[in-house]
Amino acid sequence: MASIPDPKAIEEAYLASAYSGVLCSMPRTVGNGDPIVYGSLHKSELMKLYTQYFVQKGKPARELYDLIKVSAGGKCPLCGGVGSVRTLDHYLPKSTFPLYSVMPANLVPCCRDCNTDKLDGFSESPDKQALHPYFDDSKFFTEKWIEAKVVPGLPPVIEYYVSAPENWSERDKSRVSCHFKYYRLASKFSVEAAADIPETIHVRRTIMSSISPYDFSMYLFEKGQTPALPINNWRRVMFSALAMDPWFCENLFDEI
Known about the structure:
two-stranded antiparallel ribbon; 41% helix
């Protein structure tokens, strides 16, 4: 297979677009058959770079593949750590952007669900791009844009939704909404909350049954402020929602 001419220039162009949030503007490979993508390289050759020389155990590049996988500490950055890292996701899908099939900057450690949810589509509009955990502005990871509400019931249900800060641009608001939708975070977070909330209800029914609704609310509020979890983590958001809900804080759950 022919070598990739000037790979440094390709990477520099990718990084410039990544930091600007416009990776959707990178050149796509379209058309039927096996088109030439760059220089004399065909799409099939670039696709094989990943499947036959990067992923396969025993190949020299497999070491780099494994290093990228462990860089996330085992927690998928696309769904906020709900899933465990099992594979690498091509932020720009290799079927449409084969030129970046083995570029480390384009490879994100992720869980199998997130890798499957995304499929091969990628928006052509900057405001529809999912978040890139390597390059996007820090505000996406340090400011709260996921909220939740309590749906009364026995047991209660936690519903998650997007509520981006008012001072964000319309493009940034759209991007987090799209990321939330692409990776089905509402469903994934609610499932996690459903498994976790019985413990909090048990605490309320037993060792905290005698405290006031206000004091119980303060207890939940403190649990929602833990710096050990990212600000948009499902559990941190859940406790904040529970703390602000009068029905939950006043309920002793005697009927459960």
